Amino acid sequence: MRALILLGLVGFVAQLVDGSLGMAYGVTSSTLLLAVGTNAAAASATVHLAEIGTTLASGISHWRFGNVDWKVVAKIGIPGAVGAFAGATFLSSLSTEVAAPIMSLILLALGAYILVRFTAFGLPRGNLGKPLRKRFLAPLGVVAGFVDATGGGGWGPVGTPAILASGRLAPRKVIGSIDASEFLIAIAASIGFFVGIGSENIDFAWVAVLLVGGVIAAPIAAWLVRHIPPRILGSAVGGLIILTNVRTLLRSDWIDASSGVQAAAYLVIAVLWVAAVVYSVREYRRDKERESVEAVESELRTRAGEEEQASA
Questions:
Q1: For the chain, how many structural domains are there in total?
Q2: 98, CA 20 to 30 Å: which among 15, 219, 292, 303?
Q3: Which residues contact 260 (CB under 8 A, 6 or more apart)?
Q4: DSSP result, 9-32
Q5: Cα–Cα distance between 156 and 109 in angstroms, integer?
Q6: Which helix (H) or strand (E) holds 204?
């Protein structure tokens, strides 16, 4: 019972992060399932089954708040579903001993990407309003869908930063569109896992509690996306994902590190993680101060122009 309550809380927190940041539900949930000993294919299948419900709820919530661009959803979601099905069948064909470290490596890379991306660069806002081409979104969808299924998460970490980096879509619409299109990826990946491993290795009670936690969090996250600082949240989540998956890898048969090496690695990661969060908080405050100054200067220039017109 305690494990189910914990999973429900994980589902809630993971969806709260995902709906606010456009990523990390699958990565966070899969990381926990791997940490408690679930095999890689079953962990990813469990998460994707839960995501059918959470992504539907999240997509509807984002749509109601005006955060979804349906053209982007169509252009990236359908190719993403193809990539997700392929990734699910590929992961299902690997042995548990091989799949678990591979999945942890993918999750570790995604966590590092999230941490560096949001800590160092924040959110680009350059080319707002310019159209996003299908020749960009379709290959991105295939790659992101494949990574998502094989890594137990990755649709957001691959798709969201790539679209944000283009600067052509408002951040809240990037997040809403990625969350809405993930519904297609969750369905395709789930079908792929049923084909690959069947249903006997999937604990549907775990699916249910992850789903309930995520559905409760979805409307809250859709509202928070307008208010929460993504830079700080990205740094915090990225560090957590890195720490957990390094732990899995150090304890795997691939490395089998001693307790002393493990402790040293955790200490280094924790120091870097705290430093990243502190830096993000500082840069966020600087950005807000800069925006305030620019707003005041713009208002003063406008008033000066109006006074000149009146005197003329």
A1: 1
A2: 15
A3: none
A4: HHHHHHHHHHHHHS--HHHHHHHH
A5: 13
A6: helix 204-224
